[in-house]
Design goal:
This protein is an alpha/beta fold and 306 residues long. It has 13 helices and 8 strands.
Length: 306
């Protein structure tokens, strides 16, 4: 047949592989169109929000392993929302294969308003189209390694919200600011980082219902230093009180503030006991079985709050 069409066997083989490849990609993308329902509506009451940031740590095999682990979990606790943030190359696979009651987040979102010639960027509309329900913006590693400013982070948050996905906005302080005391902490977290956010997104409650604040004590991430539950609670209350004064008591009450300081299964219950901690942003432990322990132990902490 190949000779009748003037094609060599190698050409036929090449065409077959290309068609098979396109078919496989199309199948993944079609599967990715399934309805995802991991992000919880505020109408159902404030849910404790646990996010797993996979950073730049996963190859294809590791992604399959994590998906299998999460898909094998029992029903999620009623009071807890879970999302995972894979690296960009794995978003299509995760949105297609991960159970629908766990949300998928990107690790960043471009400050763009449309599709276009923006090489290397991720337009929020693309992320929403592929099945993302959240976007991380302003993570401490991006603020440090990519020199992202407070203003750029705020613009990215707005771009995500305008595209129909929620924004997990990361804020935090390095060790030298922590050691300088509460006034220095307030200046960086509130006067600089949070003020920039409010200037861009405004003070509308409907917009703030699409925002989660992730507090990262940068000094306690991978350094061997630890923040106690009391340390975390103190800072979370400072943030919430500022939001109440700046945006209104109702927005502050409903706002979810995650703790992102190297949470592990062993520390999750005591952290979840704190009244102003509304979730966790988990790094390394989200790649391991320990992530399931974090979810289970957070449920215990929440039950003890009541």
């Amino acid at each position: 047949m190949a000779s009748q069409q003037g094609l060599s066997p190698f050409a036929v083989m090449g065409i077959t592989l290309v068609v098979a490849g396109v078919g496989a990609v199309t199948m993944i993308m079609d599967k990715g169109k399934k309805e995802r329902k991991g992000r919880k509506s505020a109408a159902g009451g404030k849910k404790f929000c646990i996010g797993g940031n996979w950073k730049c740590e996963t190859n294809c095999a590791k992604v399959k392993e994590i998906i299998a682990r999460l898909n094998g979990m029992a029903k999620l606790p009623d009071g807890i929302e879970v999302f995972v943030a894979p690296p960009m190359p794995h978003l299509a696979t995760v949105t297609a294969e991960l159970r629908a009651d766990i949300a998928v987040s990107s690790q960043d979102c471009g400050n763009l308003t449309k599709y276009g010639a923006f090489t290397g960027e991720a337009f929020g509309g693309m992320l929403e189209d592929i099945g993302c329900e959240w976007a991380l913006v302003g993570h401490s590693e991006r603020r440090s390694y990519q020199s992202e400013s407070n203003e750029l982070v705020a613009q990215k948050a707005k771009a995500a919200i305008d595209a129909g996905i929620g924004a997990v906005v990361c804020i935090g302080e390095p060790l030298e600011v922590r050691e300088a005391g509460i006034p220095a902490l307030k200046k960086l977290l509130l006067d600089d980082q949070m003020t920039a956010l409010v200037k861009v997104v405004g003070k509308d409650a409907a917009v703030w219902s699409q925002i989660v604040i992730a507090y990262e004590p940068v000094w306690a991430i991978g350094t061997g230093k630890t923040a106690t539950p009391e340390d975390a609670q103190e800072t979370h209350k400072i943030i919430r009180d500022w939001v109440s004064k700046t945006c209104g008591a109702a927005i502050a009450k409903d706002l979810r503030i995650q703790y992102g300081g190297s949470v592990k299964g062993a520390s999750a219950e005591k952290m979840a006991l704190q009244p102003d901690i509304d979730g966790f942003l988990v790094g390394g432990s989200s790649l391991k079985d320990d992530f399931l322990d974090i979810i289970a132990n957070a449920e215990k902490g929440l039950a003890a709050r009541k």
